[in-house]
Write a sequence for this structure.
């Protein structure tokens, strides 16, 4: 799947979220997921590729949760 380790992938998207914003990072990870998902079953099921994909899905959820948390803080501070 991805040539980056899970830690490197996480660092890449967290850096992107800080520099470009959560929306950009979430969109980028979902675009990468879309291209990687079909490859999980190329030449038959591969557990390692599936596990990598699951870790990326978890990272996408984490980024979204961070975005919601940040947005919520901003909303409640304004009130």
């Amino acid at each position: 799947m991805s040539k980056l380790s899970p830690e490197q992938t996480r660092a890449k998207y967290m850096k992107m979220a800080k520099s470009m914003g959560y929306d950009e990072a979430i969109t980028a990870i979902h675009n990468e997921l879309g291209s990687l998902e079909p490859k999980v079953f190329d030449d038959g099921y591969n557990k390692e590729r599936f596990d990598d994909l699951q870790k990326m899905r978890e990272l996408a959820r984490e980024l979204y949760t961070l975005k919601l948390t940040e947005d919520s803080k901003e909303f409640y501070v304004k009130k």
